[in-house]
């Protein structure tokens, strides 16, 4: 690191005084390079030279050249980091004086803001009630937030704070004084207010209550001054809300009391300007400090509601002069109410009815326009039969120009459209935050959402103003999407993401609003119990919605944004209701067809900005985007309607979609192909008799797209997929496609399979064709041979996706008898050789597929095809490792079975190889299964094997080697399982080994006995039960019963179920070692006969013995998996009572078991817990997740004290259960309490903290807005965790756990920060904007953990 020599600085200063502006610019640019270079310091420059540099830069701020001025401003940022502490105050003083006296204060004000934003900042958690010095000393490790700061010591921060408090704040009070007649200096400007905003943002944490109060008073005077412009007042409201963030509680309370008094005065003597100001302040406070402001809403909200109660315009008549000032007040009030509702949702519950009243009143508020729909209400209730109505767009006007330009109805003085737009936004916010209460109803007519809101929205579809109409459509889409979410809950992948919906209001250059528009916040709602009820309410409005939207779509003068919004609303309805349009389709289908084919209806103008309602789409409405939405909607209609509904429109639909497919545009063609696939599925429905001409047309278009070399690769891939679907769905129907077309299509698929760019898609298409083949006439043997050869060649490629697709295609060919019959022996042998290298442990998915394909190549080979030495070696290698119980093991056993049945020499060679080369060196369970399967399917001793059952019995009885004996026992058990009653080995063979020496032989004998008993229940089970009843080997025999129950059918053991039940209960309560296995057996017996054993479980749950209750609780956990619907119906009435009783058990361990049972229920039977049941259970889970001080104790180990938490395991189980509920029952969870427990978990034990991190990360996706609201308390918990230091004598394991915990918190913090940035970048989430603590926390995190953050970000990428 080098220092800049003074002569070089002097040279630059000389050039900065040069008359030539180019010299001045270049010298400043060179200076900026020096200042921003981290390798260069200014340590060698004395104070006098630094003063000269400051003088030159400040002088440049007044330069006549604008570029020189801008560069001077840029230099000030890094300069303040290199100057001496005692120079900061004078610099601020000079800049504020210059700002006050300059002809153009914008440049010095910008320079001042730059300096403030680059000064070393105090810690974000510094208390504004404590002394600044004390707060600063608490952060001696503070680093910089942004920019190349080098001096980050406490002294530098203290110097910056002193300069702000002693120099800047007094000058700010002067700058904020309202302007006076004839006086310019010191009067407030927009720049001075911006300066205040920047100061509070950077240094608000160190301001004392007195300083905040003085600034508040100054801002209020500015707001109340009649000489302040609207722009200044709007910015001043923002400044006021920032000041309130740092105001002490007493000051905030006093300020809000002042607001309440001011509102009271306005109720007596109304001044629209001041009233609007007060309303705007309340809205800003709700957005800035929602948690602190919420409790005051019960006093403030009625004042704001009184502005929009509608009482003040009841006496108005059409033609009266517009009330512009009051309309502006109403607009501000509606925006404030929207902020209240979105930021302080819980506190606004009591005002829900008032909000609905206000929004519904002002959604219709149009005092200068006589609504033509008023005379046509009856017509709205009828379903039209076509889209070519002659009554104009709104059903009562024959004037085609009525909708062409909203300027025909309003002039510059009419701003009532702003009021209506804000009313629509408020209504959307109420719907998103109160969806459950509004949509659910006591009857199938739904709640108020469908009795009051929906009819009004449909009525307002004819709104004359484009801005307002789009908000109305967006609100309607929001209602529909919320209905779907409440009726059944959306997929987890879609939760938290923005719902697809309508477009937002178009930009209006001739109009503006002084009130800010904010996005509404979507709050996830619980799943409705009466799902069909709410859907029925929506379905009842489909005819009216169809007619209203049909008028908009059929009118050629309708703007593109409205058309796209209308299409998206229809799409949402189809998605939620899965069709149900029926005859109503004829109202708008022709309009969709015209749009899809790019007709004249796309020539109407109009663009759109981002919508604010939750149904809004964030795209720009263009001809292309509208066309894509229309094509996508047609696809959904085809997927959710019958052929009868669509048949009458096919004559126009097929050409329109074909034209879209032939488009050169990538997006349109791709979407059209997806829609064409849906249409093809509809036309080839087995229950329908479609006109083959339509299929021929579709086939021709798809084929031409595949063969078009100029088409985009993704388009061609989807066209290949479409061709595969056409071929697969027309098998057995020669008239639908025709032999010639089918042959040509298969040739094209083979050609595409050989092409490097399209072979993956072609392989997937081949898979579908092979699966659907139902006769030899459907497929050409030569084509099958060529496809197999080509797919076999693809298996040698490095592309995994290609290998997987090729294996899937080969699997389908092998599984189909007609396709497999087309393969000759040589082709099969070549394919076996190609598959052999894939038979390795690694990629288990490809291994499972390879085993399956290999099996099919051996099926019905008639001795012509067999396994070779390489295949045998590969199998021997596979059985040396654990293969689990999944697809790989099952496919391996299926392959071995086919080898035993089909390959005479191969089965013998394989058996000898396993016995000689693997034996006890392999994975015992896998080796035993393979040997048993090969021996049984190969015919046993009569199959030519050198070994048989007798040899393995001898191994058990004679051989002393423990491993060999264990393997022989398991082999015998597996053979008995497969042979059934034909298995001649008696139970005593296994009984004799239950007390053998060694650890492995007895348990192997018990398992083998159970496997053999499962194959021959009547021959084995009586002897087993007799021995178990005598008390001999109870631990081992319980495992035997577990194997029998697990591998037997319910019919085979039903006769012995009661005896097994009683014996297992007795064993479980008397033998702690066998309790877990006995509980599993009891659970599985309950599944076999729930009508008998569920009441028994319930009876034992009230036992006085803790062990008996614990066994029942453990047993119930196993009843939640692998059960049928009939069992669910039996379990439904009692499961909640079961779980509730278990969670209240006095024994700590039993409560832990109960939580694991609830976890199992949440993972497998979430539908049984939904609704009131979960509401009863969740509070008990929350209780168990709280640290219980009574369970925490200290023990002495030598001179050391150790803290032991006996409740830790229970809390872990509680958090695991909460995580499982988040996965499966998100819409039934009370997020308020849930978030509290998650945040508390961040400060708990390491394992619980890891779970809390996972839960928080998932909540950031599922409930993004709710998470962003709670960033402040989350930041407090995270800061506490990250501030913890490991003990000085911590061992390596403890250090690694601490490091892992820090890394987990940082990962979640990065995710939440990215979501907060995204929310703010998209227009600003109310929750994201109000979290000042989080912003400071993330700055602190970056300062102290920069390396870890970078590592986590790189790791995620």
What does this structure look like?
With 1357 residues, the chain is mainly alpha-helical. The strands form two sheets. The protein has a two-stranded parallel ribbon. It has a two-stranded antiparallel ribbon with strand order 3-4. Strand 3 and strand 4 (1200-1205) form a beta hairpin. The longest helix has 30 residues, at 1292-1321. The model is unreliable at 127-151, 372-410, 489-532, 606-619 and 1321-1328 (pLDDT under 50).
How can the largest sheet be summarized? 2 strands, parallel
Please give the count of helices: 68
- Structural class by sheet pairing and helices: mainly alpha
The counted number of beta strands is: 4
The neighbouring-strand order within the major sheet is: 1-2
How big a fraction of the residues is strand?
Answer: under 5%
Name the poorly predicted regions: 127-151, 372-410, 489-532, 606-619, 1321-1328
Helix content: 55-70%
Globally, the shape reads: globular
Distance between the termini: 33 Å
Q: What is the CA-atom radius of gyration, in angstroms?
A: 38 Å
Average residue-wise pLDDT: 81
Topology:
Elements: E1 2-3, H1 6-16, H2 21-36, E2 40-41, H3 47-60, H4 66-79, H5 88-101, H6 106-118, H7 132-137, H8 154-175, H9 190-203, H10 209-224, H11 230-245, H12 249-268, H13 272-288, H14 290-293, H15 297-307, H16 324-343, H17 352-363, H18 377-380, H19 416-433, H20 435-439, H21 448-459, H22 466-488, H23 531-540, H24 542-554, H25 560-577, H26 585-596, H27 623-640, H28 643-646, H29 650-661, H30 666-683, H31 692-707, H32 713-729, H33 734-737, H34 739-754, H35 759-772, H36 781-794, H37 800-815, H38 817-821, H39 825-835, H40 844-858, H41 869-878, H42 887-902, H43 904-918, H44 924-937, H45 949-958, H46 962-979, H47 987-991, H48 1000-1015, H49 1017-1029, H50 1034-1047, H51 1050-1053, H52 1057-1070, H53 1075-1088, H54 1090-1100, H55 1106-1118, H56 1125-1143, H57 1148-1164, H58 1166-1169, H59 1172-1184, E3 1192-1197, E4 1200-1205, H60 1208-1224, H61 1231-1241, H62 1246-1262, H63 1264-1269, H64 1271-1283, H65 1292-1321, H66 1326-1329, H67 1332-1344, H68 1346-1356
Parallel strand pairs: 1-2
Antiparallel strand pairs: 3-4
